[in-house]
Automatic annotation (TrEMBL):
<keyword id="KW-0547">Nucleotide-binding</keyword>
<dbReference type="GO" id="GO:0046872">
    <property type="term" value="F:metal ion binding"/>
</dbReference>
<dbReference type="GO" id="GO:0005524">
    <property type="term" value="F:ATP binding"/>
</dbReference>
<dbReference type="InterPro" id="IPR003846">
    <property type="entry name" value="SelO"/>
</dbReference>
<dbReference type="Pfam" id="PF02696">
    <property type="entry name" value="SelO"/>
</dbReference>
<keyword id="KW-0460">Magnesium</keyword>
<keyword id="KW-0479">Metal-binding</keyword>
<keyword id="KW-0808">Transferase</keyword>
<keyword id="KW-0548">Nucleotidyltransferase</keyword>
<comment type="similarity">
    <text>Belongs to the SELO family.</text>
</comment>
<dbReference type="GO" id="GO:0070733">
    <property type="term" value="F:AMPylase activity"/>
</dbReference>
<protein>
    <submittedName>
        <fullName>Protein YdiU</fullName>
    </submittedName>
</protein>
<keyword id="KW-0067">ATP-binding</keyword>
Length: 139
């Protein structure tokens, strides 16, 4: 609905979907727990609100980079990239072109071989139509 609130039924569905993806070997965050709220949420009817708490190796997302990029804060983009390299790809730290290796094409360290097919297709589409894509939200 776009109001930033979740209801119990959709939160349960999201939890089941993420666990199914994990069971299929698809990289995803894991559902830790669902917490309900007494605050009513209006959808087709008034429903119980809920929140899905997730766990992951990292909650770093492309949007974090975009936040600093669109605020014209290149030093913060660099700091975030340095953090990502230290935390997730330490083998890139001493590379002269570590930032290009971090995000070749669109975000697959060491090229497209480490990325799921859907990500490779999305990245190639974005690269091919770069003049029409302003941010990840445009995809």
């Amino acid at each position: 609905m776009g109001d930033g609130r979740a209801v119990l039924r959709s939160t349960i569905r999201e939890s089941l979907a993420s666990e199914a993806m994990h069971a299929l070997g698809i990289p995803t965050t894991r559902a830790l727990t669902i917490v309900t709220s007494d605050t009513p949420v209006v959808r087709e009817t008034v429903e119980k609100g809920a929140m899905l708490m997730r766990i992951a190796q990292s909650h770093l997302r492309f949007g974090h980079f975009e936040h600093f990029y669109y605020r014209r804060e290149p030093e913060n983009v660099r700091q975030l990239a340095d953090y990502a390299i230290r935390r997730h790809w330490p083998q890139l730290q001493d590379e002269a072109d570590k930032y290009h290796l971090l995000v070749p094409g669109c975000g697959c360290p060491h090229g497209n071989h480490d990325c799921p097919l859907a990500v490779r297709r999305l990245c190639s589409w974005r690269d091919e139509h770069r003049q029409h894509v302003n941010s990840g939200a445009d995809l």
